[in-house]
Amino acid sequence: MDKHFDTCIYCDNVILVPYQEKHVKRYHGWMKSTELQHLTGSEPLTLEEEYKMQKSWVADKKKCTFIILDEKTFVTTNDEVESMIGDTNLYFNELYDDHSAECEIMIAEEKARGRKLGWQAITTMLYYGIKELGVLKYTAKIKIDNEKSIKMFTKLGFAEISRSKYFKEITLEKNITDNWLNWLQTETSLLINIKMSMSRQIFAFFKGKPIIINSMVYGSFYICAEFLQQTYQQREIAQNLMLENTNSRMPSGTLKIKHYETNENEKIDIMKILENYDWQVIQRYILYGYFMAGPILHTWYVWLDRTFVGKASRVILRKLLCDQFILTPPLLVLFFTSMSLMEGKDNIAAECKEKFVRTFQ
């Protein structure tokens, strides 16, 4: 179904993203499991067949499929494939009823089970189907021995309407009511990146792209440091001028006191000094901080956290040593050379050679 192809749905602990080609290999690996084949009533496919199936599902207007991501893993790795834990689907199979859909959910990763991620994913999918796709009735077909799924859908308010001994499955049904929809809405805490306020669109966008928000944070450190340094320098200049003006009006030998008077023109001059920031320098720090150092630091710390796991003293020490001796030297070289390049200097390496050792120490 192409209607939701650009839609991402954000919840507290899961993210639903459209099933895309990049997800196929991981999905194919899941479906080699005989347990999952049994529970989903699926036949094993080759990888090539799985790719064809993915393309057909995207084009099929009767199917709505989302891959379920673990939100915590995605925030840490920014990798959809690594964050995959399952999928959820809506099938519009009723020939004469476009408002009836069969719902399905699979949590394939064992480590993700028992954390209520499946509950969040299915309640979100059900709510999305009602609000965005116009669903008025849901059905769910579940294997008779899948007690956990039967219990979950019963808790959702579904009621059994039939059993099939041949397929060894039961069919449950839920007609949508206003009260149930209101309950579902409170249960989901839903953030959909379409048809919502601009502030929520921005929030959803950044929540799914940690490299952007982290680059802004790291980059802001550089910009704020330069801004504060210039502020300090301007205040020093202003204080010196005020002191000179005060002393110049005092008779020789008069005791110098902190209180002094100044005229309006002097105040204007002082304000001009305080506002006399070098904005070209600050602009260079914006470019370096947000677009160079920020992304590098984000990628580095993601790698560092994945390589050295834990909070033990030796782990922290290793991180500090790597940070100081592996990351810092090339980052300093990048800083000095990029600043020289943006300043238009002929020898972009000169400042680096002059200041590198002193700064690194």
Automatic annotation (TrEMBL):
<comment type="similarity">
    <text>Belongs to the acetyltransferase family. GNAT subfamily.</text>
</comment>
<dbReference type="InterPro" id="IPR000182">
    <property type="entry name" value="GNAT_dom"/>
</dbReference>
<feature type="transmembrane region" description="Helical">
    <location>
        <begin position="285"/>
        <end position="304"/>
    </location>
</feature>
<keyword id="KW-0012">Acyltransferase</keyword>
<feature type="transmembrane region" description="Helical">
    <location>
        <begin position="325"/>
        <end position="342"/>
    </location>
</feature>
<keyword id="KW-0812">Transmembrane</keyword>
<keyword id="KW-0808">Transferase</keyword>
<dbReference type="GO" id="GO:0008080">
    <property type="term" value="F:N-acetyltransferase activity"/>
</dbReference>
<dbReference type="Pfam" id="PF13302">
    <property type="entry name" value="Acetyltransf_3"/>
</dbReference>
<dbReference type="InterPro" id="IPR016181">
    <property type="entry name" value="Acyl_CoA_acyltransferase"/>
</dbReference>
<dbReference type="InterPro" id="IPR039135">
    <property type="entry name" value="NAT9-like"/>
</dbReference>
<protein>
    <recommendedName>
        <fullName>N-acetyltransferase domain-containing protein</fullName>
    </recommendedName>
</protein>
<keyword id="KW-1133">Transmembrane helix</keyword>
<keyword id="KW-0472">Membrane</keyword>
<feature type="domain" description="N-acetyltransferase">
    <location>
        <begin position="14"/>
        <end position="158"/>
    </location>
</feature>
